[in-house]
Amino acid sequence: MNEQLRIVMIASECVPFAKTGGLADVVGALPQVLRAMGHEVIVVMPKYEQIDYVRHGLNPYLDSMGVWMGNTQEWCRVHMTTRAGVPVYFIEFHEYFSRPGLYHDAAFNDYADNPRRFGFLTRAGLQLCKDIGFRPDIVHVHDWHTALAAAYLKIWHWDDPVLGRAASVLTIHNIAYQGIYGAEHMDYLGLQWSNFTPDKFEDHGRINFLKGGIQYADMVNTVSPTYANETRTPELGYGLAPYLNDKGDRYVGILNGVDYSQWDPATDQQIPARYDAERLEGKAICKRELQRRLGLDAVDAPLIGVVSRLVEQKGLDLLAQAIEPILANMHVQFAVLGSGEKELEAYYGGLPARYPGRVGSYIGYSDELAHWIEAGSDFFIMPSRYEPCGLNQMYSLKYGTLPIVRGTGGLEDTVQQYDEATGTGTGFKFYEPSAHAIYYTVGWAVSTYFDRPHHMRAMIKQAMAQDYSWERSADAYVQLYRRAIAVKG
Ligand code: ADP
Ligand code: GLC
């Protein structure tokens, strides 16, 4: 049972090359841990314009690779670099990937040819295995972008000497994004019209990438046990709950891990001072420096951090309704980092001018400031409407920054509710998705800060002792792979 597995991961993003969210963190970390466990893993992703050849040490690998898309053969180039022993291959195809954004233009409009771009990436990832003679046991794909690999394996490659043995695993990082496109793309995607049926790709006359992936994949998982249950319900399944339920125990939840080589206050080189659970003086320095950097008053008030994509999923519109009453009635400060929807950007970007010294914000993307906020805040708030896993609350625990979260998905699984009677717990949870619930729960956290400092200290200790390292999750993925192989037979 312990034999080495050969795994190809095909994905649309991967740290440190291209990232819009936690998907990139997962695809960046999991292969390295699997490799350390003795498995052989390669990663395939697009060569986006923003990926610098020199900085990332990309070398030309294949000068031309032909990829069949329907009756058209597209010719691309492949570059390669190695990261902690894991080969990462980049598909270079200017027509599709040489543009400023990964998925959309600066105005947040999705590129109209996304189905072709990511259908192509998916097929190129499989073709690459053939061209370099990599015979995978597992093809592991992520989200709608590459979900069709599961279908391609069964439709096209079932008797292929290189790909025919491979079992497929699909990881769903967010079921709200399904990749639903007009049927006119069927031919280019090479999906065969006989498969354009509701039990496969067809979804109200259109093609649904994620649905197709779910139907064909040998095993499907999502990124926390609670989200796995939630997506089986009409409310959070976004139309796919029946298909996930049909999958039975071939659909499971595996919590993401944290890359503690990047996110540990004891070793973090990006923050102003280092600290751990025994020596918290450094955390006080991080708070002072964060206050200074964001123009906040140097006072002893609980500082609440936000690092987030500013989109509906994250519930920051609800926080926007609660934040001014909170500022009016409580002695608190906020540090906000995010980018996304224009309205929310304008709102949070405008708060510091209206609440000088009490709210600091930076609209944009900054990995360094994300680390500073994790280290320098007392609390970290995530009022998500849904949250498949969420990474920031796990970072917060490690940084002794107590999470204030809505108990959904991975937030429910990783944050333990504060018990006022005993002082145990690692954070503050609410369940109703409302401004009122946010107001009330922030008030609870603030009163704990001022009135029960001994509970704060105990919770910080307990939070910092939590271990969400990838090793445990990687074990669960290996079991998932073995099940996929057994299912495929
Ligand atoms: P999601 O993938 O839904 O955005 P996660 O919590 O899984 O949510 O992952 C978000 C990741 O992106 C974290 O690593 C977080 O620090 C990072 N992040 C989000 N927004 C920003 C930002 N504006 N600047 C820097 N990092 C950000
Ligand atoms: C998605 C989810 C987030 C999860 C991440 C990585 O972007 O929104 O909750 O942590 O994927 O799996």
Your description of this structure?
This protein has about 500 residues and is an alpha/beta fold. About 40% of the residues lie in helices and about 20% in strands. The protein is built from 19 helices and 18 strands. It has helices at about 20-35, 95, 115-130, 145, 150-155, 185-190, 210-215, 225-230, 235, 240-245, 280-295, 315-330, 340-355, 365-375, 390-400, 410-415, 435-450, 455-465, 470-489, and strands spanning about 5-10, 40-45, 60-70, 70-85, 85-90, 140, 165-170, 180, 200-205, 205-210, 220, 250-255, 305-310, 335-340, 360-365, 380, 400-405, 430. It has a nine-stranded mixed beta sheet with strand order 3-4-5-2-1-6-7-11-12, with helices on both faces. The chain has a six-stranded parallel beta sheet with strand order 15-14-13-16-17-18, with helices on both faces. The chain has a three-stranded antiparallel beta sheet with strand order 8-10-9. α1 (about 20-35) packs across α19 (about 470-489), α5 (about 150-155) crosses α7 and α11 (about 280-295) packs across α14. The longest helix is centred in the first third of the chain and has 19 residues, at about 115-130. The two termini are about 15 Å apart. The model has no long low-confidence stretch (mean pLDDT about 95). Adenosine-5'-diphosphate binds near residues 25, 337, 365 and 367.
